[in-house]
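Exercise 7b. C-alpha cells:
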C-alpha cells in the first residue's frame, strides 16, 4: 500500500475525466498550445465524458463496452465529430504512472488508437449526445494482471487531416482469469462504513435544527449510506460500521414528538410530530448492529487529537464513556467485532476498543491518551507510518501504546480516501456549463452526475488493482476509510461495494479479522508515528481553553446536586468538542456559537441555587442570630451546599459556630441561623457565599448582609416597646372629645 504525495493527488484529481480538453469547431487542438488542462476545460465549448465501462475490468477474450456523452455548449449545432477509443498493452504499474497518465498534456505516450470508432450525428446547440463503443481486449494485447490506459478521443474530420478536440481518460484493470490465482494472493480489503453527522443537540432536550430529518430520508445522505450498507454487496463486503452515539441519541429523540430550536435556556422551541423516517432508520441500525461488526466513536465524534494535545483528559474520558453509555442504551452494546477467538489483543474479539481519530492523524501523545481510555486498536492514515524500505506495506501493524503494551494499528489508504472524497455530482476540471442547460439538474449538463459517479468508481477499482499488483505473491491487506461525513451520492456507494465483492483480486474482510490475522512473514518495516504532530485543522486552543473553564463550572454545579446523573452535562461539552467543527473558520464559528449557548444554559442553572437577598438585619443588642435563606429553584433536583460567612478583619463582629452544610429540597428554601456578636454598636457588613460540600466556591453566589448592632438588649427593647404602645393608646384616648362624638354629624364637628 503505497503512500502518494498529496500534491500529486490533487493534480490527479484535477485531470480525472478531464473530458473537456477540446477546442472550438474547426480549430486546432488546444492540447498542443501548452495551456493547462484546467484553462482548456474552462474554455471548452464541446466536451466528451466517459460514463460507464462494462464490465469494469477486462479478462482474456472479453469485449468491453465503453459508453459516454458529448456535450455541445455552443449556440450552434456541431457536426462531423466522432469518438475513438485509445488503449495499449503497456501497464500503468504504479500510482505515479496513473497520475502521469491523467495529467499529461497532449498525448501521454502510453496509449494509441484501437480502431474502435463511432461517428456522431450532429450535436444540437446546448445539448448532449450519447455514444457507445466496444473494445475487443485481445486486439489490444493485454495479458498480465494490472491497470491499463483507456481514453475516449473526440475527433473531427475524415481519415486525412483528423483533429483531436479532446479526450476523456480513465483506467481499465485486466484480470488474467484462473491463471491469475496461481500467481496472485487476493488482497484482504476491509471497509469502514461511517454513520457520523454533526451534533444536533447541546444542553437542551430540543434539537438545534431540523436538518437531520431530510438526511434520514431514503434520498438523504444518511438514508443512502444505511441502505447501501444493507445491500447483499454490503453484507458480503463485511463492513465494519463506525457509528456516532450522538447521532443515535438525536435520532432516538425524533421517534416521538420532539422539539426544535428555541433559546439557550430551553424555552420557545417548536414542536414537531414523530418522524417515520427516524423510526425506520434507527430500527435498521439496530438490525445492522445485531448482525454486522461495528464500533462507536466518542460521543459527538469528539476531536480526540485536539483534546489530547490540550490536556483535556477528563473531557476525553467523558466523551468515550458518554458514547458507550448511549450506544448501550440504544443498541444494547457499544461494539461488535467478529475476530477469530483468542486472536490479537484486548477483550472484544481481539481488538479492544477501536478508535478512529479525525483525518487518521495521531502522534504518540494522542495514542497514549487513547490507550489510557482502553483503546486497543486505532485506525490511522497510512502517511502516519510510512514504509522504511522498498517492500510494499500491509495495512496491519502494531506500535507501543506508551503504557507498556502494544497498540494494534490499521493503516487506511490515503489515495483511496481522496478518491472517495471527490465532491458528488461533479467532474474535476470539467468545464462550467454555458448557455441554457439541456436538463434541469441544477444548471449542469445531463452527463455531469453519471460521469462523476463513474470517475470515482473506476478510479477506486483501478487503485485497488495497482496496489494488489505491487506484490502479487505476498499476502497483503487494505483498509478503506471514507470521509467521516461521507456523501457519495445516489448509487455510488452501492457500486463501490459491488466492485469490492466482485473484483477477483480482492477478498472482503472485517477490521477485527485483519487484527486477528497473524502478520505475514517478510512484511515491510514501518516508521513509528511521529512523537508530536499537531494538525492545523484541529479545534483551536482558544476554544478549548474556554471549554476547560466551562467544564470546571459544570463540575461545580453538578457537585451540589444530590442526583445529577453520571457526567452532568458532559454531552453538551462533547458537542462543542466535535470533530465536525474542524478545518476552517466556518467550523470554528459554529463551535464558538454552540459554546455560547452552553455557557448561557449553565449560567441559568447556576442562578437556581442562590442566597435569598436580605439587605439589613437589626440585632436586639450586641448579639443575636442572623437568619440566612438558601433557595433551590431546580424543579426536580435536591441540592446540598455549604454556607460560608466572611467578617471584616476589624474585629467589630464575630460569628459563632453554626451548621453550614444543608440540604435543600427541590423547589424550596432552607434557613440557617448564624450566631453573631458585635463588640460595639453600629453597622457591619458580612460576606456570604455558597460552596460545594467539599468547600469549592460556586460562581455567582456571593452576596452581602449588613448587621446593625444596638445599645439596647432584648429586655430593654421589650420595655421600650410596651411603653411606646401605652403612649400611643393614651394619646389616642385623650384626643377624643367628651361623650364620644361618634353620633355627631359633620356640622357638629
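Sequence design result:
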Amino acid at each position: 500500500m503505497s503512500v502518494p504525495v498529496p500534491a500529486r493527488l490533487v493534480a490527479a484529481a484535477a485531470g480525472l475525466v478531464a473530458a473537456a480538453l477540446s477546442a472550438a469547431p474547426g480549430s486546432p487542438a488546444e492540447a498542443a498550445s501548452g495551456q493547462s488542462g484546467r484553462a482548456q476545460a474552462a474554455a471548452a465549448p464541446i466536451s466528451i465524458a466517459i460514463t460507464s465501462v462494462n464490465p469494469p475490468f477486462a479478462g482474456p477474450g472479453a469485449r468491453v463496452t465503453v459508453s459516454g456523452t458529448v456535450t455541445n455548449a455552443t449556440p450552434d449545432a456541431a457536426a462531423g465529430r466522432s469518438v475513438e477509443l485509445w488503449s495499449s498493452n503497456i501497464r500503468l504499474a504504479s500510482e505515479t504512472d496513473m497520475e502521469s497518465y491523467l495529467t499529461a498534456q497532449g498525448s501521454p505516450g502510453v496509449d494509441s488508437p484501437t480502431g474502435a470508432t463511432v461517428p456522431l450525428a450532429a450535436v444540437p446547440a446546448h445539448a448532449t449526445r450519447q455514444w457507445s463503443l466496444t473494445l475487443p481486449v485481445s486486439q489490444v494485447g493485454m495479458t498480465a494482471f494490472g491497470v491499463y490506459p483507456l481514453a475516449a478521443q473526440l475527433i473531427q474530420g475524415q481519415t486525412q487531416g483528423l483533429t483531436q478536440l479532446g479526450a476523456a481518460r480513465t483506467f481499465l484493470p485486466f484480470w488474467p482469469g484462473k491463471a491469475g490465482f496461481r500467481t496472485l494472493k487476493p488482497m484482504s480489503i476491509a471497509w469502514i462504513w461511517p454513520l457520523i453527522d454533526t451534533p444536533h443537540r447541546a444542553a437542551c432536550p430540543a434539537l438545534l435544527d431540523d436538518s437531520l430529518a431530510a438526511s434520514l430520508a431514503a434520498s438523504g445522505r444518511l438514508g443512502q449510506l444505511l441502505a447501501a450498507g444493507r445491500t447483499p454487496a454490503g453484507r458480503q463486503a463485511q463492513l465494519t460500521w463506525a457509528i456516532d452515539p450522538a447521532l443515535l441519541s438525536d435520532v432516538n429523540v425524533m421517534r416521538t414528538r420532539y422539539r426544535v430550536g428555541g433559546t439557550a435556556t430551553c424555552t420557545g422551541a417548536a414542536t414537531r410530530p414523530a418522524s417515520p423516517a427516524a423510526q425506520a432508520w434507527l430500527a435498521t441500525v439496530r438490525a445492522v448492529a445485531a448482525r454486522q461488526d461495528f464500533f462507536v466513536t466518542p460521543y459527538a465524534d469528539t476531536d480526540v487529537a485536539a483534546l489530547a494535545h490540550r490536556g483535556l483528559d477528563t473531557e476525553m474520558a467523558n466523551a468515550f464513556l458518554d458514547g458507550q453509555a448511549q450506544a448501550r442504551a440504544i443498541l444494547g452494546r457499544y461494539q461488535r467485532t467478529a475476530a477469530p477467538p483468542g486472536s490479537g489483543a484486548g477483550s472484544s474479539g481481539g481488538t479492544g476498543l477501536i478508535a478512529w481519530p479525525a483525518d487518521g492523524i495521531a502522534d504518540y501523545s494522542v495514542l497514549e491518551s487513547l490507550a489510557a481510555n482502553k483503546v486497543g486498536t486505532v485506525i490511522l492514515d497510512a502517511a502516519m507510518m510510512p514504509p522504511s524500505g522498498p517492500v510494499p506495506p500491509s495495512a496491519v501493524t502494531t506500535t507501543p501504546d506508551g503504557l507498556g503494551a502494544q497498540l494494534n494499528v490499521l493503516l487506511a489508504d490515503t489515495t483511496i480516501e481522496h478518491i472517495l472524497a471527490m465532491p458528488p455530482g461533479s467532474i474535476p476540471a470539467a468545464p462550467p456549463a454555458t448557455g441554457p442547460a439541456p436538463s434541469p439538474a441544477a444548471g449542469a449538463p445531463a452527463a455531469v452526475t453519471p460521469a462523476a459517479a463513474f470517475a470515482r468508481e473506476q478510479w477506486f477499482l483501478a487503485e485497488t488493482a495497482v496496489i494488489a499488483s505491487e506484490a502479487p505473491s505476498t499476502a497483503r491487506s487494505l483498509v478503506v476509510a471514507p470521509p467521516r461525513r461521507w456523501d457519495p451520492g445516489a448509487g455510488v456507494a452501492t457500486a463501490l461495494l459491488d466492485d469490492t465483492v466482485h473484483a477477483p483480486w480482492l477478498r472482503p474482510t472485517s477490521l477485527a479479522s485483519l487484527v486477528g490475522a497473524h502478520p505475514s512473514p517478510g512484511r515491510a518495516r514501518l516508521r513509528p508515528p511521529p512523537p508530536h504532530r499537531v494538525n492545523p485543522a484541529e479545534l483551536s486552543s482558544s476554544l478549548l481553553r474556554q471549554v476547560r473553564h466551562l467544564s470546571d463550572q459544570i463540575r461545580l454545579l453538578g457537585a451540589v446536586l444530590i442526583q445529577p446523573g453520571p457526567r452532568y452535562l458532559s454531552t453538551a461539552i462533547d458537542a462543542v468538542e466535535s470533530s465536525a467543527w474542524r478545518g476552517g473558520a466556518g467550523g470554528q464559528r459554529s463551535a464558538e456559537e454552540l459554546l455560547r449557548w452552553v455557557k448561557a444554559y449553565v449560567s441559568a442553572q447556576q442562578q437556581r441555587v442562590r442566597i435569598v437577598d436580605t439587605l439589613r438585619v437589626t440585632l436586639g443588642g450586641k448579639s443575636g442570630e442572623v437568619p440566612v435563606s438558601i433557595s433551590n429553584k431546580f424543579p426536580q433536583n435536591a441540592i446540598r451546599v455549604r454556607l460560608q460567612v466572611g467578617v471584616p478583619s476589624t474585629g467589630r463582629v464575630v460569628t459563632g459556630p453554626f451548621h453550614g452544610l444543608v440540604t435543600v429540597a427541590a423547589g424550596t428554601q432552607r434557613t440557617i441561623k448564624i450566631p453573631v456578636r458585635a463588640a460595639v454598636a453600629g453597622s457591619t457588613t458580612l460576606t456570604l457565599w455558597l460552596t460545594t460540600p467539599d468547600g469549592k466556591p460556586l460562581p455567582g453566589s456571593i452576596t452581602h448582609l449588613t448587621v446593625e448592632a444596638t445599645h439596647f438588649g432584648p429586655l430593654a427593647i421589650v420595655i421600650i416597646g410596651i411603653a411606646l404602645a401605652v403612649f400611643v393608646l393614651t394619646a389616642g384616648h385623650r384626643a377624643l372629645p367628651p361623650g364620644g362624638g361618634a353620633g355627631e354629624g359633620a356640622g357638629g364637628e
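Instructor comment: DSSP finds 21 helices and 28 strands in the chain. The two ends are 116 Å apart (CA to CA).
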